[in-house]
Amino acid sequence: MAELPPLREVIAKHGLSASKALGQNFLFDAQLLDRIAAIPGDLEGRAVLEIGPGPGGLTRALLKAGARVTAIEMDRRCLPALAELAETYPGQLNVVEGDALKIDHAELMGEPFAVIANLPYNVGTALFTRWLGGEDWPPQWTSLTLMFQQEVAQRIVAKPGTSAYGRLAVLAQWRGQASLAMKVHRSAFTPPPKVMSAVVHVTPSELPEGVSARMLERLTEAAFGQRRKMLRQSLKGVPGAVDALETLGIDPQRRAETLSVEEYIDLARTLSL
Ligand code: SAM
């Protein structure tokens, strides 16, 4: 296999100055990238969806690990660099130009796949809620390995009774097993962002019976929308919810952040019936 040039050379050759608008903060450290690629386990022969490959640092690590990568990139400037990578790993890399928010990932992949991405914050959270939401379950993805701002990563894995616990935690934890896999120092990125980052790893859980995703979302939206209020107040707008608290023996004077994920599931189940 041909030796690949250092990523900094690739960037200089293709004029890939980091675009702020596209949230571009690149990773160059091959060891760090190998560690991120190892989080979902052995990738040999597995289908991987990478969002936002940029100049291809993480993509290199995935290809080296033997993955069959489909990569969606919005920035056309990155395509020639990615084409060179595809030549080095024949048949292993398919690059799709476009906005990952507008593409149907299951249709694009056509088989079970692992998702790996180092994305800008707003795009990452939008995709995350989409991957975990909806009534269709189990999903076609087998795991999500995603770089977030550390503060967002902490909100995803947060436990009840903490200020970080909210809608994102309930969503991630009723639909999956979510863990904080690795913290990444801001200095690892070029240019360095203002805040620290962390990689979150999620695998899908089995769907609890009789629970509508829409109902659960409605409940957490109402409860955490007024998180300082008691549930008997914040859940007033959801028909039957205050009565359901009583049926389940949940004190209506409690506040949103004190309810466990299981209690939200029970509440949604009671109201879904
Ligand atoms: N994966 C590379 C790395 O780790 O060095 C680049 C990471 S950079 C933080 C984010 C990448 O996502 C950029 O290449 C950017 O162009 C791309 N991107 C941003 N929004 C996107 C979107 N909606 N769809 C696809 N790619 C997007």
List each distinct ligand once: S-adenosylmethionine
Give the beta-strand count: 9
Number of domains: 2
Question: Which structural category do the helix and sheet elements fall into?
Answer: alpha/beta
Spatial strand sequence of the major β-sheet? 4-3-2-5-6-9-7
Largest sheet: 7 strands, mixed
Order of H and E elements: HEHEHEHEHEHEHHEEEHHHH
From the alpha carbons, calculate the radius of gyration and give it in angstroms. Answer: 21 Å
Question: Helical percent range?
Answer: 25-40%
Q: Given the C-alpha coordinates, what overall shape results?
A: elongated
- The number of helical elements comes to 12
The first-level CATH class of the largest domain is given as: Alpha Beta
> Under the CATH scheme, which architecture of the largest domain would be assigned?
3-Layer(aba) Sandwich
DSSP strand content: 15-25%
**CATH homolog superfamily of the largest domain:** Vaccinia Virus protein VP39
The whole-number mean of residue pLDDT values reads: 95
Q: Report the end-to-end length measured between terminal Cα atoms.
A: 59 Å
Q: What's the CATH topology label of the largest domain? A: Rossmann fold
Low-pLDDT parts are none
Secondary-structure topology with pairs:
Layout: H1 7-13, E1 26-27, H2 30-38, E2 47-51, H3 57-64, E3 68-73, H4 79-88, E4 93-97, H5 105-109, E5 113-118, H6 121-132, E6 141-149, H7 150-157, H8 167-175, E7 176-184, E8 189-190, E9 197-204, H9 213-225, H10 231-234, H11 241-247, H12 261-272
Parallel strand pairs: 2-3, 2-5, 3-4, 5-6
Antiparallel strand pairs: 1-8, 6-9, 7-9
Helix pairs in contact: 2-3, 8-12, 9-12
The structure holds S-adenosylmethionine (SAM).
S-adenosylmethionine binds next to β1, α3 and β3.
